[in-house]
Amino acid sequence: MTQSKHFHVQGQTVVIAGGSKGLGREIAIQLTTQGAHVTILARSPGPLEETRKELLSHTQSADQVINAAAVDLTDPKQVQEFITSLATPPSILFIVAGGTAAQVGFFANITPEEIKSCMDQNYFAAAYIAHACLRRWLQEPSADSNSNSKRHLIFTASTAAFLGFPGYAAYTPTKAATRALADTLRSEVLLYRAQQDIRVHCSFPGTIYTDAFYEEQIRKPQLLKEMEGSADNKGGLTAAKVAELTLRGLRAGQGYITVDGETELLLNNMRGSSPRDRPVRDWVMGMVASLVWPVYRWRFDRMTGAFGQKMGREEWTRQFGEREE
Fold first, then answer.
1. What GO molecular functions are on record for this protein (predicted)?
2. Measured distance CA(122)–CA(316) in Å, rounded
3. What CATH number has the domain spanning 13-261?
4. pLDDT in tens, 122-173
């Protein structure tokens, strides 16, 4: 594959936080086939070792380095120890850890502990390793200034960063926070541009057909399934396809990456000060979105109201109990 001046991976050292399963695993495979040295991180040693062996079968040269490390990304001490232990800092950090299988549900139905764990798994897990890696980069600046010496920090948010569907009340704030962190760091790293070239990116995948997706369906409210299309397994992509499209966006030099038309509309309807990689197209998409999404919002509100009426007062009372006087 032809290397890009924006995102060069052959011979580069890549760390993938959340690289043992799903999207992270597919990104790891594709980067390995493109000649990168890849280290995957996750909490569970078993899936890590299985994926590491899979990656070894995709290496392109005998000197390609493939590693795996069991790290609890929600523990800042473990994250810092891992980053410090590296002989040299990575050139590229992908942050793909997270999910919502255990916390999906209407806000009143989930527990405070589930709200906290969702923020830990999706936001703090991303923030801790981004923080540790950035500090290591600043301690050890890149040796030269050519295009291959760029350092890349790639967050993974979600379409949910722009769209609050009923049932994702624990999840959507974590992805909105991830987007806000990416926005802030994109600006902050300009402080260090004279020292080194650090690029911050954020991808916004929608529904991805992984094992975690199917586990999520067990707890997912029917209303949420109907709104996002997962009731009929519509509108999603495989993890391999999302990985391919994400890497294509990086090679094109995009800061914010979408992999489907609906998310691109939502992004451009809510872009604010976030970077515009294709200004004219983004402006047109924003104008279209300003006309399209109010119609969708009206439809979703009607669906929610109708679902509530169908459930009825007796069902809600059964779920939550009568309020004590």
1. 3-dehydrosphinganine reductase activity
2. 30
3. 3.40.50.720
4. 999 999 999 999 999 999 987 554 545 799 999 999 999 998 899 999 999 9
